[in-house]
Amino acid sequence: MDRKAWDQLWQTEPGTHDEPDRYLVSELENLVPGTALDLGCGPGANSHWLAQQGWQVTGVDWSEAAITQARKAASELGLAVTFEVADAARWSPPHSFALVISTYALPPRGDARDGVLKGAAAAVAPGGTFFVIEFDASSEAEMFSADDYVSLDELPRHLDGSEIARAEVVAVDHHSHGEGHEAPPGLRGALVRARRRG
Question: Edge-to-edge, what's the strand order for the sheet holding 162-171?
Fold first, then answer.
């Protein structure tokens, strides 16, 4: 999907992704809050949850419609979150972050995906955490084209200088975030959590 298609999606589905990803919550809820970067943040459910836990969050997405929703929700929740409209494959973070996340937001396989993963890994501060979950190629559900999926061994290749704390294929029972979109049977996610050395 190109940027226009994502804008149309978020314009027609406001408020349907307002809960954080459950794996993100279970993996990160015990971290000490600091600065966080949410790449491909969509309408901001994960960013909002992190901010509620005390994180100083920057969310980036190339869909202006998604960012508009994210900012509106943050205002309604009384949260101070920075949201930017930008292509994560080309956007340069202003500084490093204690936490960098990407949930079901990677571009299709190719230069853009490599760019996002390389930039995400580089944006993690020494001692910081990188968390990614993406639809896994072992999924039996045929929702996307082959290049939209990832393989579990693809993700750690971009994490030189990091210790892998968890790398696992998990069941995805909701499409993307929250309770709004039930996933079809057989959909799986490739989950990786890593800590940058230093």
Answer: 82-85, 56-61, 35-39, 97-103, 124-135, 188-196, 162-171
Of 10-24, 54-68, 169-183, the one with minimum mean pLDDT is 169-183
Does residue 196 carry a pLDDT above 90?
Answer: yes
Check residues 173 and 9 and name the one with the higher pLDDT: 173
Residues sharing a CB contact under 8 Å with residue 120, sequence separation 6 or more, in sequence order: 37, 39, 88, 100, 102, 130, 132, 158
Domain boundaries, position 150: 3-196
Over residues 135-149, the mean pLDDT reads 85
Domain count, the chain: 1
Q: Would you tell me how many other CB atoms lie within 10 Å of the CB of residue 94?
A: 11
- Which amino acid appears at position 109 of this protein? R
CATH number at 151 reads: 3.40.50.150
* Torsion over CA: 198, 30, 39, 148 (sign): positive
Q: Please tell me the distance from the alpha carbon of residue 65 to that of residue 53, in angstroms, as a whole number.
A: 25
CB 137 within 8 A of CB 151: yes
Tokens of 155: 């993700």
